[in-house]
Every structure is written in C-alpha cells, then in structure tokens.
## 1
Amino acid sequence: MYTVNSKLPYNMEYDHRFLKPIRHARNKTLADFSHFMNVNSSTICKLEKGSLEFTPYYHEKLRDAIKRLRISNIELASIRNVIEQKEKRGYK
C-alpha cells in the first residue's frame, strides 16, 4: 500500500539497525526510548549492538515505538538510506 503524497510503501521492513537512528531522530536516551518500546533499556542496548537476536517480538515492540513516536515513512526511508550508505562505505 502506498501513501498518497510520498509514493513510498507504507509498511517498510526494518531491523535492529534502525533502533539507534530512530532513537536519535527523536533525541531519546535509552531510558526514554525504553518507555516507548516497553522493554528494558539494557535490552535495547543489546539489540542495538546486535548481541541479542531481533525476534518478531522485538519487531512488534519497535513497530509500536515507531507509532508512538510518530516516525513517518519518509523518515524511515531516509534512515534506510543512511544505513545503506554507511554499509557501502564500511561504517558500523
């Protein structure tokens, strides 16, 4: 499904790499973001580092946080572009 104005897919896929950029997009600390995602801040830290598997449970929690923080599809698309550019250049 596409939005009227953006022509971007409404339900984009995202993974653990999106946690930190989404959190920084709204200027939230781990403790602040843990309230939006309803998990412990140490769990978020482990998910961001990739030391904890990003299961469908955490995917749903992140989706809820995106809705609560009102992250738009355009923002998610730009975050995806930044992540892809960093990977091309070899950044973590």
## 2
Amino acid sequence: FPQDQTPQGQSYCNVMMRCLWLTRPVCKPTNTFIHAPTSQVQAICRGLGRCHGRNFCDSNSSFFLTICRVAPGSRPGHCVYRGRVQTRKIRVACKQRLPVLFLRIL
C-alpha cells in the first residue's frame, strides 16, 4: 500500500471521524483505524504478540492501518482530515488479555 496521503484515505477519514463523533466539541488531532478482525487484534494480548512489562504488547504481524490527522485550519463541525494508509506492526495496552488501547505504530 502507498505510504503517501491518498484521496481514498482522506475521504475515509472525513467520513469516519464525523461518524464516530470525533469532530466535536473539538477536532480530534489524530486517530488510527486498524483494519482487521477483532480476533486478530485480541490475539496480540493472548500470546501471539511480544509483551513488555505488565500490559504493553507488540504485534508479531503487520496490520493494515489508516492514520487520520486533522488538517490546519479545521474547526469543530468542519474538520478536514488527511488520511495515510500503512501496513505496520502495532503496540497495544492489554488488560485481562484483551486490548484496551492502541498505543503506537512500530
């Protein structure tokens, strides 16, 4: 997948950020969407990831991601996002063997 911004990524970001109410009362600066079945993301915390400490686990495999970042000049209710697609490994926080928070791209 291209690492550059794409019109498809931008359209996806604008629609999804609005649908998830991430554009009010402020434009959320960034959000990462993981395109995978829930079971694959859960597997990171259930032995198919490399865990550090008590609750940070890194995926062993890569995931298809869309990273949405707010464009300069955006304002609540009229947020414009730039989308970038990547295939990368990720780090999540786990609790009771379930992912509870996306932490970062590795």
## 3
Amino acid sequence: MKKVMTTVCALILLCMPFISGTAAAAIADRIVAVIGNEVVLQSELDERVLMTHMQYPESKGDKTIPEKVLNSLIDQKVILAKAKIDSTGIDDAALEGIVGERMKVLASRFSSREEMESKFGKSSLVIRRELRQEIKNQQLIESLRRKKLAGVTVTHEEAMAFFEANKSRLPVIPEGVSVSQILKYPDVSAESRSGAKAMIGNVQAELKGGADFGALAKKYSQDPGSAQLGGDLGYVQKGELIQSFENAAYGLKEGQVSDIVETRYGFHLIQLLNKEVNSLHVRHILIAFDRSRSDAAGTIGQLRSIRADVLAGKATFAEMAGKYSDDPVSARLGGAILSASSKNVFQLSTLRPQLREVIGTLKQSGDISEPVKVDPPQGDSFYAIFRLNEKIGAHQLNPRQDYALLEEIVLENKRQRLYEEWLQELRKEVTVRKSDV
C-alpha cells in the first residue's frame, strides 16, 4: 500500500527541465521556493509539470499536481544539498545506456534533430548532458534511500497490528495460479550451426588482431539488448546465466576474453570485466543461430514423452524440469515460474493471453498441458508444457493466505514513513521557503 507521494516523487524524478526557448521567454519567472542557497523558478516548476502531463496524461485533471511536483523538487534539492552521497556506486555504462534509450524516445517525437533542438531551444548535446545529470541524480537519491532503509524490518506483531487497523481497506486479491514449466528450444540445423561458427571465428580473428571488443560488439553482435552498449550485460547474479556461458565467464581473469562458447542462443565471445563471489560483470559478442529451419517435430515429441513419464509416475515434473528444461532459472526450481510472491502466484489477469488460455484448460493441481508453441514478444519461439501447481480463488487479503504480501505492504509503509521522517530532519538543516503555486 504505497503512498501517493511515493509515486509522485518517482514520476518527478523521471522528468527533465526541457522547454523551448520561445516558451521559456513567455514565462514570467518568479521564485516559487528557496532551498538553502538554491531556488526553484516558476519556469522550472512549469517545465516539470508539463513533462509530467506529457508522460502521464491521466494527471492532467489533477489540480494538486503542481503542489506535489514542487514538494518533490524541494525534497530532491534538499537531499542533494545535505546528504552525503557517494557517486562511485553509479554504473556509468548502465547510466549511458539509460540516457541513450531516453534520447531515442525523445527524438522519436520529432521529424529531425533540428526540430527537436528548435523546440527545446538548445543543442542535442546540451539536452543529453542535462538528461544524464537528472538521471544520475535520480540514481544517487534512490541508492541513498536504499542504503538508509536497508536494515528496516517488520515483526509479526507489527504486521498483524497493521492488518487489524486497516483490514477494511486492504485490497481484494484476484484469482491466482502457481505454475511450473518445462521449456525447450528446437534444435538448430547443421547448416545454421556451421554458418554461425564461421562468423564468430571471423570476429575472433579480428579481436586477436587487436580490434576493440566493444567496437566489435556494436558492429557484429546479434544480441539486441547489449550490442549498442558494446556487449555490456552489466552485473549478473550467479545462477542467472546459461550454465555453459556462466562456467566460461567464471573461468576468466578480469579483462580476459574466452574462447568460442556455445549456448542455445548461438556462439559467444565473452570478456570478464569484474568478478565477485556471487556476481559477474561481463560483456559478450553473440552470433545467433538461424532457427528458421529447426526440428520442431522432434521437440514436440520429446515434450510429449516427458509429460507421459510424469503422468505415469516414472519421474516428477521437478526432476524432468531440472534435467531437460532450457530455462536455467526455472529449471533450478523444479520448473517453478518465479513471481514477486513468495509462493510464486500469478494473477490470471496479468498473464499473457496465450499462457492464460493454456492455464485455463488445467482444472486441478497436478494437471499438465499438452506441448504448446510460445511466441514471446522478444526472443525466439519455443515449445513448453505447463503444470498447474495451485489455483487460488479471489479473496480479501488475509494473513493466513497472504502473509508474505501483507508483510511486504507493511514493510513498504514503514520504509516510506521513516523516509519522510528523515526528509523532515534534513529540511530542518536547510532553510526552505515556498510560495503558493
């Protein structure tokens, strides 16, 4: 049960002080707030309100938005002015990736760079620099908030007291399901494998000839999520990568590049940037397999055989998932599909239509679907069978069924209260004056 102010603060931190030179000239500036040695001008407030309305059209009818935006601006400036923030925790590569994506979205609204620059009354380089600083400020504040509240916990007594005081206002939990899967990608043809192997061999030769890894990733890598970041995958927790990729990465020294590594996606060259006990910072170059000529019939047959063995009691679904599933995360959990809930329960309404339809055919716990082809929004198609672990009807949130969710609500409520108390303490150290808006 997050407070409204949390959402508003998050929205405002996403905004940028963008406005055209023409529009800025039309605003009669006045000071609407003073925070220590800094001020908030009417033009800055108007820009933030405008950006909020652009990003969230439903906010246009809310007459309290200017006041909420101003309060969030004041809080941001107070934190940045008074809190001791260590900026070394910011991942510059990830930051540049976010800035790049935001700039793409912004540029897509205009027919040309010139039109965008004319509208904002500043060059694209200045726009990018201001955007980068704003996002960095946002990350710094969020990092500090997490650090400040890291040790906050709630007791069973606190959770139950909150429940008793707020039971009539707690949400109705929609119908939900817990589901496991065994996922298989069709085998690729020999021609596809040999073609990809030849291409990655050529990239490896360029790398050995002295070419820059990041430049080669941008030029050749077929991983759309990382190619334009020089192949950078950021920090990845141990166990989240495909086993062959992870094994190769952990075997490297910092800065070292692997030999050619094969996964179900294709062939990779991997460079280790940093290694910790339970995480890796790596970048890679991927030459993907062409799956247009894959063995779908063989994959369906294998899944049907697995299903038959489970239903006959020859093995459990969890055992088969651990042995055969191509999804490393759910395979380690016996096929269980992760959700934010500790019981891994999904609301039916949140599932994609195809999966919702498949799950709808399963009537009781233990039922297993026939193999189905799944076409995800991104990535390659695959085949899978699904097991219904549990079906939970719609009900009012209660501690017996939903204690983990109740605890999460109470914890977030407590964190927000402590965060606001901390902000009030910071405000006492800074002179804050504001005008009516």
